[in-house]
Amino acid sequence: MARSSGHRPMLEVKDVSLAYSTGKLFTRRKERVLAVDNVSLHVMPGEALGIVGESGSGKSSLAKIVMGLETPSAGSVDFLGTDLLKVKGAERRRLGARLQMVFQDPYSSLNPKMTLKQLVTEPLVVHGLARRDELEQRCRDLLEKVSLDPEWGDRYPGALSGGQRQRVAIARALASSPDLIVCDEPVSALDASIRAQVLNVLVDMQRDHGVGTLFIAHDLAIVRHVCDRVAVMHRGRVVEVLDAADIPERVQHPYTKALLEANPSPLRKKDTEDAGP
Ligand code: ADP
Ligand code: MG
Description:
By secondary structure, this protein is an alpha/beta fold. It has helices spanning 59-67, 89-97, 116-126, 135-145, 162-174, 192-209, 220-226, 254-262; strands spanning 11-23, 30-43, 48-52, 74-79, 82-83, 99-102, 180-184, 212-217, 229-234, 237-243. A 6-stranded mixed sheet has the order 6-7-8-3-9-10, sandwiched between helices. It is globular and about 55 Å long. It starts with 10 loop residues before the first strand and ends in a 15-residue tail after the last helix. The protein binds adenosine-5'-diphosphate (ADP) and magnesium ion (MG). The site of adenosine-5'-diphosphate has 12 residues, from strand 1, strand 2 and helix 1.
């Protein structure tokens, strides 16, 4: 699965920390939660980097920092040679088209009032990447890429299953031909029976489009199936980074070993339920 081309990371997160303060009612004390604690990692062009850790270990906070949805208290986020924390305006929007996200819950992440065509082509419209008269065909191509029926452009998300919705979210993320897609637990909200199918769409996406992926999950078995390298997070820190091929043999950190034992989850590769066309 190694697709790394080029020798410079496309994403480089350096010494990033993020603290939340949570004011408690009736007390003066402000509690500080250090959600991300001095994290450094990188993603090479076309590489899939997994981030794995239990709930509360800081994975989503890290994803939000990369997406510019949270501002870290320290550190830098370099994307395609530009510090994302410093850049603003048109340049930030231009980089925004190169950086897309797939969220955990496909029920809340897709506007129910928009058709599939409007949903998957919105990034093209927003970033001025296609003419109006091209959108129909682009929609068909994108739906096909995620193994959905290209005739479904006029449907609404309400008519789709969770797995189909998540594939719409992936098609939408692919629309602007981004360099990096951040997937935050993209299959955690789905029935176990359709997870493999959505994961396979993600693997195809990496292979066919050379898109880099930051793949977040709490299940190490899933992450090593989809990723080239895996960073293990524990209490806001990255405790270990491994080549996926070296798992389980070269696992060092006791926390990673515990994760391995906790999640033997066998993946079903072929699935016929929830099929598209
Ligand atoms: P994960 O995605 O690995 O489950 P998160 O990044 O969501 O972890 O959370 C890391 C820590 O930060 C947790 O202790 C969580 O309770 C806390 N946290 C996350 N978001 C907020 C917030 N908006 N305000 C306060 N604390 C938060
Ligand atoms: Mg999370």
